[in-house]
Specification:
about 500 residues; Beta-Lactamase; Helix Hairpins; Heat Shock Protein 90; 3 domains; 12 helices; rod-shaped
Length: about 500
């Protein structure tokens, strides 16, 4: 029945207003009743005394019925609600003005009379001999005879006739109108509260709809709950902002998972393609040696073995590169950064590739470096980056070309640039050149027959050392790779 938050809030509000209405009626009735009692008793405080002074109601300790009747008739015309009793010192009723049969008590408690005569705060309630169980406001005065206190004149201010008239008036138009006024006020407050609850819960409903649409889209797209910064920044707005952040993160993570799944499939395809060629070559050479081993002369047998060894070495390098890239991507590689002189490392790596460059007829040079500070990096990993970048430059530089290394200080970092005079990189491939297993459309890459991992490994190593690696084409032809490392 109360499945929605709005229904529950509305039910609570209705119950609260009903309770408030009941409490208001009870308290208001009690307060008004007490106020009227105090007002009536205060206004008629000296009524009993005036009755004694107006006429000789008490003669020889008895209530003079003739005088009482004339006095009572006169006062009844003025105030028909009173009832008059003559009491002795102990509160026993000696005489009264009520009709015979109406008085059901033969005595009255005198403690309230003493309190009233002693000046206690009003209202002071005493016994009503005609009702028995009800206590009412009264006026009282001491009755003296021969200089002695003989009893009390006890006047009930709201007698039995007043109660009957009051009960009749409670059912009259005025009371019904008052009840309708109270009900109308509470009803208006209830409707206003329900409207406010609706305005508040409407934002929650909007948020629930946004979440539902997000779930229906398989968490692939979402409509922001708060496209811009809202004016109201309450708990609901904060909840909506958290939903937007959560949804954006889920969409991003799902996109990453899809991208990783695509890369995984490409990885399997690339590995299958790259390993097939060297495995087939090794298998072919070994099969030839097995079938024609006796017919081959030593020179041919050596050629077959050298080719098989070369292909197996190529296969080994490919597997090692894949393992190294996997470790770098998983950040399992420990980076031990320490200050060292980068120019010395460049010279060592340059000498390592000098023989191969001379064999290919490629000029490998390094600009004389100016004095530079130490860098804070891992020596072994930085050497691996230089090996990959210089090796890549050798693979893409034609015979008679040149490769030039340079070292410059850029702010708080040292920049190493490796420029070659090859064909350069197609403009649409510059943004993907560092992706694992990316295969370029250049002739040299097609001739190599497999997708290298050297550039992807180099970029991961530089990133692990808080560095940057970039590539660009040269105006005079060829490409230039630059990486920066922090100064120690």
């Amino acid at each position: 029945m109360f499945r929605t938050l709005y229904a529950r809030l509305a039910a609570v509000l209705v119950a609260l207003f009903v309770a408030i209405g009941v409490i208001h009626v009870v308290i208001s009735g009690s307060v008004i009743e007490r106020y009227l009692q105090e007002l009536n008793q205060h206004f008629n405080r000296d009524l009993a005394k005036r009755l004694l002074m107006d006429g000789r109601l008490v003669v020889n300790g008895q209530l003079d019925q003739q005088v009482l009747k004339s006095t009572f008739d006169a006062y009844m015309e003025i105030n028909p609600s009173i009832e008059i009793y003559l009491l002795d010192i102990q509160g026993k009723i000696l005489s009264y003005s009520a009709e015979p049969g109406k008085v059901i008590q033969d005595s009255v408690d005198v403690e309230p009379i003493h309190a009233f005569l002693g000046g206690a705060s009003l209202p002071v309630l005493g016994d009503d001999p005609c009702s028995g169980d009800r206590r009412k406001t009264f006026s009282a005065a001491k009755v003296y005879s021969g200089g002695r206190e003989e009893g009390y004149l006890y006047v009930v201010l709201r007698g039995k006739d007043f109660d009957t008239a009051e009960q009749t008036l409670k059912d009259s138009y005025v009371w019904r109108l008052s009840a309708w006024a109270v009900a109308g006020s509470l009803g208006f407050g209830l409707l206003a509260g329900l409207l406010l609850f609706h305005l508040l819960t409407r934002r929650l409903q909007h948020l629930c709809q946004a979440m539902g649409q997000f779930a229906e889209s398989d968490f692939s797209r979402y409509q922001p709950y708060q496209p811009g910064q809202g004016k109201v920044q309450d708990e609901i707005a904060q909840l909506g902002q958290m939903y937007d952040d959560m949804a954006a993160r889920i969409v991003s993570q799902l996109d990453q998972l899809k991208s990783q799944d695509r890369l995984r499939r490409e990885l399997v395809a690339q590995i299958s393609h790259d390993l097939r060629t060297p495995l087939a070559a090794v298998h072919g050479y070994l099969e030839t040696l097995q079938m024609k081993g006796g017919d081959l002369d030593p020179a041919n047998r050596k050629d077959y073995l050298d080719s098989a060894l070369r292909q197996s070495g190529r296969l080994k390098q490919m597997v090692e590169d894949r393992f190294e890239l996997a470790h770098l991507q998983a950040r399992d590689t420990r980076v031990q950064c320490e200050p060292f002189a980068l120019p010395e490392l460049l010279q060592d790596v340059l000498q390592k590739f000098q023989i191969e460059a001379d064999r290919r007829g490629i000029s490998l040079q390094m600009q004389p470096p100016s004095p530079v500070p130490f860098v804070l990096a891992d020596i072994a990993l930085t050497e691996r980056v230089l090996d990959n970048l210089i090796g890549n430059a050798l693979d893409h530089t034609p015979q008679g070309g040149q490769i030039q290394l340079a070292l410059n200080s850029v702010g708080d970092r040292l920049e190493v640039s490796i420029a070659d005079s090859g064909e350069g990189i197609p403009q649409d491939e510059l943004g993907r050149i560092f992706e694992p297993f990316y295969r370029s459309d250049t002739k040299k890459d097609k001739h190599k027959g497999h997708a290298g991992l050297g550039l992807a490994i180099a970029k991961k190593i530089i990133e692990l050392q808080d560095g940057e690696l970039s590539v660009a084409n040269r105006e005079e032809g060829g490409a230039v790779f630059r990486f920066r490392l922090p100064i120690a």
